[in-house]
From TrEMBL:
One GO MF term: transmembrane transporter activity
Membrane topology annotation: Multi-pass membrane protein
Subcellular location: Cell membrane
Keyword Nuclease: no
Comp. bias (Basic and acidic residues): 487-498
Alphabetical list of PANTHER family matching this protein: EXPORT PROTEIN (PTHR42718:SF42), MAJOR FACILITATOR SUPERFAMILY MULTIDRUG TRANSPORTER MFSC (PTHR42718)
Alphabetical keyword list: Antibiotic resistance, Cell membrane, Membrane, Transmembrane, Transmembrane helix, Transport
Protein name: MFS transporter
Transmembrane segments: 12-35, 47-67, 79-98, 104-125, 137-159, 165-187, 208-228, 234-254, 275-298, 304-325, 337-355, 367-391, 403-424, 444-463
Cellular component GO terms held in the UniProt record: plasma membrane
Domain Major facilitator superfamily (MFS) profile: 13-467
Region (Disordered): 471-498
Length: 498
């Protein structure tokens, strides 16, 4: 079915996909602003705050590739609606959580819902709209999603300072109550019919790599636990670290020997694809650690309210919204090597400028210059990174390549949030003391900057100009600071129908 964008049905499809994806996007950004209040209200230590962030990223990163495959097989609308309902129920549990342990478990459940609805929202647009309207629909979807990312920390800060941090999660419930009926009424069902045909013929696309997804998520979970609890120095921590590495090795083995792997190893035969993903790991590890710590620094040390801390980073997102498309066009003209080298270095300067942010920091004098430099670096970096990932593999593998890159970025942020407090010497109660947290923050920012420098060196050494006829990104307007834009391959004629 091909729906035109100008029709009422087309507008409803665009509305519900934007609303659904914005739910997951908001929760990946606004929770950082609420962390000090969550810790105070639930009497949680720093490790619990790390898990509040990481439990969500863990299940989202581990299952996002599987979520896209489920939609293609069982129906994109069905899986999208299940994801929205799942996400809303998990959000309700987050908002009602009486303890930090229940909140962490609920956040992990949220990530599962996010893994179902995030790839599904874009897949619905590509499967539903007429080919002549598809590019514009994707552009509106990514643009409005960027706006949602921009207002997220502002709304989160307002909720934390107003009705309380629990409403950061409870807000998702009424959004879902609007999203689900609209999707069921106006969005046509679609699936990749070639999967069923291939399965009947004994082909390799009729199964899901559930084992690979479980092993990947398990490896991340065990390694994350070992990093967060490493200060204990116990035998349990050592055994957990070993088990995490073993699960990672098992994941690689399974992916090499499955007929239908979630992450096909031969995709890394492309030197360019491998290099860009290494750059992604470096830069998004730095970003993940930075955005986790800076909201705490502004509130714990500088005395900002949650609203002020959330608003403080708004210029970064605004710059990305305004300039990311131009940055992508520039990269197409001059090649990705220079932007992927210069961008991380500019971001590193921005993080070092954050060392000026201390007690009673002035926003225009101390915070804003660092935020602006950081934003300019991200503008220079993010669009070329996505384009280079897509250009480094065959067009038929664009969806897999984008999913791997997106998952790599989220996994890097996950590990950074776990490891950076350890490397910076933050104790369990560090965020309760302005002096202790400030000292740790000043050790952490140079570490983030160093990761960015490593990413720049890798880009300069290994990234080259792609072929002129390579695939270009559809999502050209970026506002998400936690991961690269997720791309999906356009359905071939006759393959997207129910």
């Amino acid at each position: 079915m091909s729906v035109r964008l100008a029709t009422p049905q087309g507008k409803w499809i665009l509305f519900t996909t934007i609303l659904g994806s914005s739910m997951a996007l908001l929760d990946s950004t606004v929770v950082n602003v609420a962390l000090p209040r969550i810790g105070e209200d639930l009497n949680a230590d720093l490790a619990a705050l790390q898990w509040t962030v990481n439990a969500y990223m863990l299940t989202l990163a581990g299952l996002i590739l599987l979520g896209g495959s489920l939609g293609d097989h069982y129906g994109r609308r069905k899986v999208f609606v299940i994801g929205v309902v799942w996400f809303a129920l998990a959000s309700l549990l987050c908002g009602l959580a009486p303890t930090a342990e229940i909140l962490i478990a609920a956040r992990a459940l949220q990530g599962i819902g996010g893994a179902l609805l995030t790839p599904g929202s874009l897949a619905l647009i590509q499967a539903s709209f007429h080919p002549d309207d598809r590019a514009r629909a994707v552009g509106l979807w990514s643009g409005f999603g960027g706006i949602g990312a921009a207002v997220g920390p502002f709304v989160g800060g307002w909720l934390v300072d107003g009705p309380g941090w629990r409403w950061v999660f409870l807000l998702n419930v009424p959004l879902a109550l609007v999203c689900v009926p609209v999707a069921l009424r106006h969005v046509p069902e679609s699936r990749d019919t070639s999967l069923a045909v291939s399965a009947e013929a004994g082909g390799r696309q009729g199964h899901f790599d559930v084992l690979g997804a479980v092993l990947g998520a398990l490896s991340l979970a065990l390694v994350t636990y070992a990093l967060i609890e490493a200060t204990e120095g116990s035998l349990v921590v050592a055994l957990t670290a070993f088990a995490g590495v073993a699960a990672g090795v098992a994941f690689v083995y399974v992916e090499k020997h499955r007929r239908d792997p979630m992450m096909p190893p031969d995709i890394f035969a492309s030197r360019q694809f491998t290099a860009v993903n290494l750059v992604t790991l470096c830069v998004y590890a730095a970003f993940g650690g930075f955005f986790f710590l800076v909201s705490l620094q502004l509130q714990v040390v500088s005395g900002y309210s949650a609203l002020a801390a959330g608003t403080a980073l708004l210029p970064t997102t605004v710059l990305m919204l305004l300039l990311s498309a131009r940055s992508g066009a520039l990269s197409e003209r001059i090649g990705p090597r220079i932007p992927l080298t210069v961008g991380p270095l500019v971001c590193a300067v921005g993080m070092l400028l954050m060392l000026r942010v201390g007690e009673d920091a002035s926003y225009p004098r101390d915070v804003l210059p660092a935020v602006l430099v950081q934003g300019l670096g991200m503008v220079t970096l993010v669009a070329p990174l996505t384009a280079t990932v897509l250009a480094s593999v065959d067009t038929s593998r664009a969806g897999v390549a984008s999913g791997i890159n997106n998952a790599a970025a989220r996994a890097a942020g996950l590990v950074a949030v776990a490891a950076l407090p350890l490397l910076a010497g933050m104790g369990p109660e560090a965020y309760r003391s302005a002096e202790a947290f400030d000292a740790s923050f000043r050790r952490a920012m140079p570490l983030c900057a160093a990761m960015l420098v490593v990413g720049a060196v890798l880009a300069f050494a290994f990234v080259r100009r792609p072929a002129p006829d390579c695939r270009r990104p559809q999502c050209r307007t970026h506002g998400n600071m936690t991961s690269p834009p997720l791309e999906r391959p356009e359905p071939e004629p006759g393959r997207s129908g129910a």
